[in-house]
Amino acid sequence: MVNGNPIIEGFIEAIELIIALDPQVVEITIRSLYVSLTATFFAALIALPLGALIYFYEFRGKHAVVSTLQTLYALPTVIVGLLMFLLLSNIGPFGFLRLLYTPGGMIVTQTVLIIPLLMGLTVSALSGIDRDKRYTITALGASRLQTVMTIIAEARFAVMAGVLLGFGRAIAEVGTVMIVGGNIRGATRVLTTAIALNTSMANYSLSIALGIILLAVALGVNIALSLFQRR
Amino acid sequence: MTIIEAHNIRKVYGSLEVLHDVDLSVGEGEILALIGPSGSGKSTLLRILDLIEPANEGELLVFGIDTVADRGRWLDLRRRMGMLFQRPIVFNSSVYDNVAMGLRYRRAPGDDIDRKVKEALEAVGLSRYIKSRATDLSGGEQQRVALSRVLVTDPEILFLDEPTANLDPTSTATIEAIVAQLNREAGTTVLISTHDLAQGQRLAHRVGVMIEGTIAQTGPSREIFREPKDRRIARFVGAENIIPARVIARREGFTVVEAKGKEIFSATPPPADEVEMVIRGEDISLHRRKPGYEEAENLFPATVAAVEPTAPFVNVAVHCGCDLTALVTARRAETLDLREGLEVWVSLQAKAVHLIPRREG
């Protein structure tokens, strides 16, 4: 232990931690999944209908709205974290909800973070249905509602791919969960914040173990994504 | 009875005028072919007639109903029509679900849908793919799925937008046969757009030529081929010879025109003083010797200027004061032993010389 390479030993220890289902590792992983999955769920609930509305309704400034959404994809997570911190803190308008430094607050923040992404991707998924397909639907005698339903059904795989991307962004980000969650052990510590903390404390094995898990989740998301995109 | 009646249809996309001054009436049970070069507005016109998108100006009556005044009835009217597009379009679901779409939109009873879909797939020979995902099929198969999807809805008017442009000859023949049968047996009115002149001729009772966003001429295909109204139509229907000439006399019921010093008889009454002769290459006969008996009004010697094979025909350019291009079968060209510099006799019926007024530009 003393003479070995700390990185290699960290790896070995990390694998032991995973195999042994170390309670701390399991707890952090479950919390991470819980927060990001819940956030993705709520974000999808809000963003998918809104995205569909933007796509199906013609209004002034539609183009500007879509461009804005696309710009927001790249919004730095710490900025969202800062903004949500201010809103949720005691001095902010939503301080009374007492969500700061709770998993609930993290969920709300990640939801806000990925809503633009999900909306934008929903709009582009629906736009992926080409003009000839829309003509075909109309020519087959679809009513307005039937047209909307057919287009959504046809874009389902692309929409699902967007939701997965949103989840991937949520679970991988550090900025908002660090600021809004506070990285409190046993309460708001998630994979990314735990890695950041343990690395700075030279506790490499735990960092590596959590890193492997995060990578596995990301890999899983990507595999699912490619399955969807192939359809 | 007139089933479609359109007047002065105009359509613009942004600053681009795609259709203008389109007048068209289609009788019930008729097959009308719209022919014309790419970009002449055929597809747009079909979409407007099928009420997929509105025209910017003009009147349109479908089934005798004024569609401009009565926008509320578009869905009902559209459900009595069907359209097949050039590109095979299938949706990401099973072949069965694809074919059932139109019936489901019309809220047809389930067992009705089931029976019709199975019948339709049987008719196009795709029964074994009923559960396959439609996007996995080949282009020709997808187009047959698309055709079944239209046919199960029993359209009274069927629009076909270059339906066989991307298909092999066998699939093309299948689709043409189905369309012809549908028209014959169910009395379906058919509007088909095509840039294949031969297809128009094979299928249609009447042909409309679309040039630059408007219908330039309608009539039986024979008339379009032999008596095009202007130079653009003549070019499109493949007249090899369009030659400027001047009317000099009327003689024995014929019009005599002069082109580069050569007098030629035409059966067309003179449309103007300055004209163009439109002569199809296959109407020009070439002979080695002066024919002893020849019913053609025009008979003159000429020199072969060029021989260009375009199997199974040969284009022969001859020099006779004015230059003509004759279309001769490859076999006949061999028999005549046509070659450059050969002296030949040209015979040409006055009826084959069509005159159009000359237009500058």
Main features:
heterodimer; A: 231 residues; mainly alpha; globular; B: 361 residues; alpha+beta; 20 strands; 37% strand
Give a verbal description of the structure:
Chain A is mostly helical and 231 residues long. Chain A has helices at residues 6-19, 23-56, 62-73, 77-88, 103-127, 131-139, 144-154, 156-172, 175-181, 191-200, 204-230. The longest helix of chain A is centred in the N-terminal third of the chain and has 34 residues, at 23-56. Chain A is globular. The model of chain A has no long low-confidence stretch (mean pLDDT 92). Chain B is an alpha+beta fold. In chain B, strand 12 and strand 13 form a beta hairpin. The chains are: A mainly alpha (231), B alpha+beta (361). At the A-B interface, helix 6 and helix 7 of A face strand 6, helix 3 and helix 5 of B.
What are the SSEs and their pairings?
The complex is a heterodimer of chains A (231) and B (361).
Chain A: H1 6-19, H2 23-56, H3 62-73, H4 77-88, H5 103-127, H6 131-139, H7 144-154, H8 156-172, H9 175-181, H10 191-200, H11 204-230
Helix pairs in contact in A: 1-11, 2-5, 2-8, 3-5, 4-5, 4-9, 5-8, 5-9, 8-11, 10-11
Chain B: E1 2-13, E2 16-27, E3 31-35, H1 42-49, E4 57-62, E5 65-66, H2 74-78, E6 81-84, H3 95-105, H4 110-123, H5 139-151, E7 157-161, H6 169-186, E8 189-194, H7 197-203, E9 206-211, E10 214-219, H8 221-226, H9 231-236, E11 241-251, E12 254-259, E13 262-266, E14 274-279, E15 285-287, E16 298-310, E17 313-320, E18 322-329, H10 330-336, E19 343-348, E20 354-357
Parallel strand pairs in B: 3-8, 3-9, 6-7, 7-8
Antiparallel strand pairs in B: 1-2, 1-4, 4-5, 9-10, 11-12, 11-14, 12-13, 14-20, 15-19, 16-17, 16-19, 17-18
